[in-house]
Write a structure and sequence with these properties.
- The chain is an alpha+beta fold and about 90 residues long.
- It has a single domain, classed as RelE-like (YaeB-like fold).
- It is built from two helices and five strands, in the order βααββββ.
- A five-stranded mixed sheet has the order 1-5-4-3-2.
- The longest helix has 13 residues.
- The chain is globular.
- The protein starts with a strand and ends in an 11-residue tail after the last strand.
Length: about 90
Amino acid sequence: MVGRNKKVINGWRKLCEQIHENAVRCYDWLRTDPTRRIPGRCYPLKHKNYAGAWAYEIGSGQRVYYKLRPDTREVLVYYAGPHPPEAPYPPAD
């Protein structure tokens, strides 16, 4: 799992402090099976602008948005924090 920038890493740290058990569960999920759906918890985003992007509801009102990098077998987390009004667009890579 890779954080896109310092803002994402700081957001992840805050989530770990606020809801530690859920953050650990999310980390394990992203490490082992990031493309399996959990209804209402983990799902792919559906617009063409979100191609390859997924969302994980880590807690009530908290989200982690990520994109898979199959060539390097990495999960790129590009947002971690409070649920934004609109899902952030994934990086172009």
